[in-house]
Amino acid sequence: MKKWLLAGIGWLVPLLFAAAQTPAQHYVDQQLRSGPLKGAAWGVLAVDRDGNVLCSHNASQRLTPASNLKLVTTGTALHAFGPDYRFPTELGYTGEIRNGVLVGDVYIIGHGDPTIGAKDSIATDTGRLFQLWKSFLNKAGIRAIDGRIVGHGAAYEGNLEHRSWSYDDLGTYYGSGSNALCFYQNAIDFSVKADTEGRPVRIQQTYPETPWMHFGNHSLTGPAGTGNSLYLYTTDLAPYSEMRGSFAIDRAPKTEHFANKFGALTCAYYFWKNLKETGWDVSGGYADVDRNGRIRGADFIPREKAEDPVVVGQTQSAPLKEIARITNVRSDNFYAEALLRAMGEEATRVALYDSCLVAQREVLEELGVSAAEIQIADGSGLSRMNYLSPEWMVSYLQAMQKSPAFGSFLASLPTPGEGTLGTLLPKLEGRERIHVKSGSMDGVLCYSGYILGADGRPQVILSVMTNNATGKPAEVRAVLARLLKLLME
């Protein structure tokens, strides 16, 4: 009799366990046995506001987060600076003013504002911005300039990009690095059009103008169905770039966006051009400051050392909370890198990546989150040297709820049907309760964030990261969308 009872209890335990499983956990277990995630490296953790586990698999496994890393970048920046922080840009001059003529140079001094010249609605219109800069000169008694317009973005030391970024990414707009003075998000646009198969693609630079650059075209028009593999290979060491790759003959003409390594010089050029077009006499040309602190013009010959200018005015960016929202909704790599570098510059006066990450770790420690279990390389997630676990991400998201900046952080996260979540549950009833950040690159798809309860507070905190998935991205996305629906229910 006792043996029969024990046997019955032995059968009952797994049944009771199965009955206690949440639908989300049951679904996760199903995906381990079949589906597009079978054999992939992936992990998930979702907890309710009381810390109860709703589903878990491989939660402590460190994985590549891709753009999920922007959650860490934007959150720590908002906490460190405050949601209403604005990036300043200063205008100054060297030399002396004689009867309204500046015998010297005008300096545009950047302090990390990533929105100068950008097309975003939060950016000050370029015409309006230049008008403000000219008003500063007028107030200083300057009516003409016997000198140059110098773009000074050298406050940020080191390379524009992280050393681990893919070589192919370095010439793309999403692989454009940030410096202290930027313009048009350090991007450059080309119109591209197929020619005869086997002949170079027709390319034409459209915006911004960069008269100092020499562009070589080594691209080819490819056979029908071969797609688009155009890349601009460029560097900030010399004013020369090459277009390589192919563009299929059956593809429609389009505008492609690539990296501009000379944001400060571009900014100086456009202000110089605006001055000339509005009747100002500017005897010199435009220039920037190289890594050695020397002024170089369009001929790229370094000359005298840059001086400390007399500052005559300052403009400011949109509030950080607005920049953070665009960063997360659009998954903007350029803005994310700008925020990370700003943290390093503010905390250590050095904007090298190593210093930036030291500054970020200090913010994480202040939030009560250990950085010992993770590896972060950059701000955008473009590097494959970033490793986080779903468990760590959930602990970070929980800690952010205690930050004074949490309201702005939560508001920065997209909801389904918005931005990079455009194809994720766009018609789901109640989708406005889901606030998550996506992260994707080849073989990687992640979602992390919050699901709000009826009271508007986070009810579920979740992170799901998939790596090395060989199935179609749409199939993997469908699995994760189903999991989000189950967690919301």
Question: How would you describe this structure to a colleague?
Answer:
- By secondary structure, this protein is an alpha+beta fold.
- It is 30% helix and 24% strand.
- The chain is built from 11 helices and 23 strands.
- It has helices at 2-20, 23-33, 69-81, 126-139, 263-277, 320-329, 333-348, 353-367, 390-400, 406-411, 473-488, and strands spanning 41-48, 53-57, 88-93, 96-98, 101-103, 106-110, 144-145, 149-152, 187-193, 202-207, 214-217, 220-222, 231-233, 240-244, 246-248, 254-259, 286-289, 294-297, 302-305, 310-316, 434-441, 444-452, 458-467.
Please tell me what the overall shape is: globular
End-to-end separation in angstroms reads 43 Å
Continuous helix count: 11
Structure class: alpha+beta
Average pLDDT number: 94
Number of domains: 2
How are the strands of the biggest sheet laid out side by side? Answer: 19-18-17-8-6-3-20
| Beta-strand proportion | 15-25%
Biggest sheet statistics: 7 strands, mixed
Radius of gyration, taken over Cα atoms and rounded to an integer in Å = 26 Å
Q: Uncertain segments of ≥5 residues (pLDDT<50)?
A: 1-19
Q: What percent of residues adopt helix (DSSP H or I)?
A: 25-40%
